[in-house]
Automatic annotation (TrEMBL):
One of its GO terms (biological process) is L-tryptophan biosynthetic process. This is Salicylate synthetase. Keywords: Lyase, Magnesium, Metal-binding. Its cofactor is Mg(2+). NCBIfam families: salicyl_syn.
Amino acid sequence: MSVYEDESFSASSDPLPLVVKLARAGLFDDYVVYESGGRWTVAGGALATVSLDAKQVKTTLAGEDEIAVEWTGSPADALRRALDALPIQGWNAYGWLGFDFAGLIASLVSRGSEAPGGELARLIVPRTEVRIDERGVVVRSADEAERARVLELLREPVDPITPAATGIDVRADGEGYRERVAQAVKEIQLGQYQKVILSRTVRIPFEADMAGTYEVGRRGNTPARSFLLRMNGTEAAGFSPEVIVTVDADGHVLTQPLAGTRAFGRGTEADAAARSELESDPKEVFEHAVSVRAAQEELRGVCRAGTVGVDDFMGIKERGSVQHLASLVTGTLDERRTSWDALEAVFPAITASGIPKRESLDAIFRLDETRRGLYSGAVLSASHDGALDAALVLRAVYQQDGQAWLRAGAGIVTDSTPEREFEETCEKLSSVAPFVVRAD
């Protein structure tokens, strides 16, 4: 059934304050804000919810009881089947996959390992969907009263006041992280794996205003994607430097591994020197090259033969307080495959896990201080026509039950040093730490 009605109008205002205004309005219990390619989408309320754990995929339609079905085989395909079965024409879905979703993918699961616990994916088909870009605003809603209220809010004057941020010290617990890096280097030198990303958490000593943090942080960052979400008690605001995978409705596939990092934003001369060092450092070049090679191998598993290639090899992408080596890996989806197959083929991102993936995941589960949750998972949008866009969850603020934190990692290879990898985490955390807004 088709349940949506659209209304559009022109808007000359900066989209960001409009987006934040809708997030603050209290209209939606759950919502996802997703920015991609110059367009912001606010997906509010749940016309339908699809979630997945290690055993079941659960579907809830508004006003109806939850339906739980045991799934087998591919977890990404289980999500696809659940979405395709919804009685909603022209649906779009928004939500997240946690990093531990990787523990459900057969090719990555070590023999004898336990299945990850808890909810590992959650998607909503929104009741109301607002798209804002330079051409104007489109409001798409299944609720007439909600559509009217959203239109009213969007046409009201925007509050010009930007909230004040509180800086966070990102250098806490350096010694513990250095010790874990040293252990990983030993394991790499013993041939257990080639590369692993180890992360560390920085606690925020107050509750964060997530919408305010998103507004201030977005103005201070240059992300590939940005997002703000509140779903079932989980909150996050992030400025993703990297696309895990994009698949359009015609089956064109793109992934963009970023590996190799130096600081950015310290002045023209310092930035140029850091860039030159990044482009010539053997450790950084090796880390990037093996990531690109692995990304090609992953796409070849789901793309037509001969279509996988690399564009803009080892270009530079500036993302907030850091600059990265970046390459585009592209292909054309095999006719027997779906965008969800492509997502599962590249998940978790090589640049947030390691090489080989199975062995690096084992190392992460042993050496990372806590389970990652949403960190280094994905925030994504998916559509009934097969299109899918998944952003890597990095450079983000996380909050649950009033507790907020930051998290960042670094890629460890045989030539890594604990001190340099700790500094890299500080550089990455500095893309977010200055922009955290304290809740009133």
